[in-house]
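anyone seen this seq b4? input:
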Amino acid sequence: MRQNGWKDNRAEDGTDQGSRSCQAENGKNRQDDGQQAEQNEQIEEFGQITLDEGQKDHKIHLLTIIGEVEGHENSSGNSKTTKYDHVLPKLAEIEEDTSVDGLLVLLNTSGGDVDAGLAIAEMIASLSIPSVSLVLGGSHSIGVPLAVASDYSFIVPTGTMMIHPVRMSGMVIGAAQTYEYFDMIQDRILNFVAGHAHIAYDQLKRLMHNTEMLTKDLGTVLVGEQAVAEGLIDEVGGIREALRKLHQMIDRSRQR
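predicted toks r here
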């Protein structure tokens, strides 16, 4: 009687164990699906994702700055935009998240709102974790401060950077104060770039007011190696070089 009872209990325990294992596996699958859906939403909605399955157990946050940098006014619904009200809170969260080891910024932007662009650039520059930027396609206008805000910067061989004076659309008051205001805005941009890149203030201003390249405007377009030669960008390279450099910087930061 005891032997039969022991066998029955064992069979019952085996059934329960198999059921619990199946339930645990189903729960894990649902959790993985939920995490994947959240990642897809982050990419689709904000152009951001956290890379935490790579080499050396480094957790890297990927931030993309694409299209037009949107300021206080909404851009056209047909335009690709980077919204500063999305990016600034995320950068603050990254700074507070002790599990994030580094930041990789991918840029392909035509420029946009000066105040919004400088706000994002200042946030990136003030992060305590290592950061690397990579210019893909182009990083024009206010995209220049965004590209140099990181600790180290790359540009692909075909990437471009356009440096030009501040432009304003709409009604402009024809007074000396208007020019002084424009000059003040340009001075903010020039000081930030000169302070975060290997280029002098006067040289950058000369490129900004160049009249020999753009036939209907002022400014300079630098392609790949030219941006490095002028001191705006640290190195020519792609995603492989950018990630390798960021991993090296994270390792050095941990050692310190």
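Strands lie at 48-51, 60-70, 81-83, 102-112, 131-139, 152-155, 160-163, 220-223, 235-236. The chain has eight helices and nine strands. kinda curious what u guys think
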